[in-house]
Q: What sequence folds into this?
């Protein structure tokens, strides 16, 4: 089971990379309005590095937790900016969560979302309403935890996760940035979607596409 699970995670990371690459220009445009205009490039480099690393590994003899650990190191090595440590910590927390259930069960998938959010919060010291990626990740986690509690099916859970993340990302348009370079703009950050929240939606959509198609329970 773990062999298949490791390959499923590799497929997930590949999908994320393709989707981030496709949305790279839009992400950088969003960042250009309130930041350095490099978020799309940064995220693309990070996930390309993850896929390059996973391609070297013997996935048939790896646990899912080990895939996330490898992803954390590769992402951090490729991305030295603030996003690097945030997602590296997210992936490490996901690896720790998966050690409790290496099967990638539906509960385990919810635990991945929850653990990644916890890692981002711990590393970035942020909270909902700061106009950051957490404005997408936190509602996504709430949706995942709620779906797990009511024993929802795979597609139902991931649809609710993605809908919550999209709503959270859209809500950042009405926020004044409290963290990062965008915070220096003050009221001028109003009206712009946070690029980190936008990329979080892309990541979660790729996760949904991977896990919900498998119909994992």
A:
């Amino acid at each position: 089971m773990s062999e298949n699970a490791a390959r499923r995670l590799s497929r997930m990371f590949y999908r994320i990379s393709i989707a981030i690459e496709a949305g790279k220009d839009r992400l950088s445009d969003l960042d250009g309005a309130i930041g350095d205009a490099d978020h799309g490039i940064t995220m693309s480099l990070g996930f390309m590095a993850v896929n390059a690393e996973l391609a070297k590994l013997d996935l048939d003899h790896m646990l899912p937790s080990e895939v996330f650990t490898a992803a954390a190191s590769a992402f951090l090595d490729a991305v030295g900016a603030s996003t690097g440590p945030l997602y590296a910590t997210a992936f490490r927390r996901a690896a720790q969560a998966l050690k409790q259930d290496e099967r990638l069960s539906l509960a385990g998938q919810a635990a991945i979302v929850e653990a990644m959010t916890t890692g981002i919060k711990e590393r970035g010291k942020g909270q909902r309403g700061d106009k950051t990626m957490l404005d997408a990740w936190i509602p996504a986690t709430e949706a995942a935890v709620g779906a797990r509690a009511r024993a929802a099916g795979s597609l139902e859970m991931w649809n609710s996760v993605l809908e919550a993340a999209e709503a959270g990302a859209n809500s950042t348009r009405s926020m004044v940035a409290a963290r990062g370079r965008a915070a220096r703009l003050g009221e001028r950050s109003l009206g712009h979607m946070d690029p980190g929240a936008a990329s979080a939606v892309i990541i979660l959509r790729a996760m949904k596409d991977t896990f919900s198609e498998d119909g994992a329970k």
Summary: Residues 2-214 form a domain with the Serine Threonine Protein Phosphatase 5, Tetratricopeptide repeat fold (CATH 1.25.40.340). The chain has nine helices and no strands. The two ends are 13 Å apart (CA to CA).
